[in-house]
Amino acid sequence: MPHRSSAESSIDIPRWLRHLPKAELHLHLEGTITPETLVELSRRHDTQPLTLEAARALYVYDDFQHFLLTFKAVSERLRTAGDFEFITDAMLRDLAAQGVVHAEVYISWGILLRFKPQLAIRDVMDAIERARLRAERDYGISLLWIIDAVRHFGVEEAATVFRLAAELRADYPSIAGIGIGGDETGGPARDFQQLYAEARAAGLRLTAHAGESTGPVNGPAEIWAALNIGAERIGHALAAQHDTDLLRVLAERQVPLELNLTSNIRTGCCPSYEQHPLREYFEGGLMITLNSDDPPMFGSNLLNEYVLAQRLFEFSLEQMRELAANSIEASFLPAARKLKLLALVEQYEGVEESVAAAGAGARSTP
Ligand SMILES: [Zn+2]
Predict the structure, then answer these.
(1) pLDDT tens for residues 25-57?
(2) What is the rounded CA–CA span in Å between residue 27 and residue 57?
(3) Is position 212 annotated as part of the catalytic site?
């Protein structure tokens, strides 16, 4: 049962959570664009640039299909490699300020290849790698890329994406894995079995969005299918709550789940925070992590997700530490960095102690 010690009652919990070292494992680069950043991109590219008001209006929606359209409208204003460098810089600055010490970020080559054929993927990689290295130097934050295909664009387009990821991995070792996102019904996981086997053989780690928008009837089958094609982490897994066998297997195998609380509410995939299975998964011994998905599009960020989860589901700070440790444990980092970050999480005592623990990265301390 949730409990709170008397010592915790005197702690500034949001501040404690801000400095708790943590990893973000489910974040879409194109989904980190704030309305302010979008206005700047629009100023660069549109003959009639968006006002801030119009940009903000784009982020208001209440269902999954509309969300996908919004996502497209935003990503259409990413036109040059320099734009990608610009948004990666902004994303990493923002993550560092939330106490994020490691991030695994989806970049949708599926969208790039289909809608931006004028952009060479290598130029984009060079640009975002410059931003990654700067942030590693300036904030001590590490980042791995997960190359994302759009599942409803079909298997052939995904094949192009994943084969290119396997090829470019030699030049960009920060490419750690692959994933499929988008409309699950239009691109069921089972269709990607062969491609996932191929990607695994090429040394790529496997993730899949599953059981997000598919609901209680079809959702569990999508998660089973994601496991069957070898997905090592499941994005969302909201529908697992409707299948007790699935819950048991996820717990037994300790399959990391990339949960996205606010995202699920804002896209309408889950009716309310109260009905979200996050706490139930935790109590059931599932390996859960907190993530933010497309934070500005949902009016949230990772720190806010930690604050919300703690408050709504009455997690103790020790349990929040466990969730942060899960996020490091479930990452695709090499063992040495993983152990170092896990030690930081374990030793974290609060703001002063964390700042004193050199190597945590130069977080922007308020
Ligand atoms: Zn996602």
Answers:
(1) 999 999 999 888 999 999 999 999 999 998 888
(2) 22
(3) yes
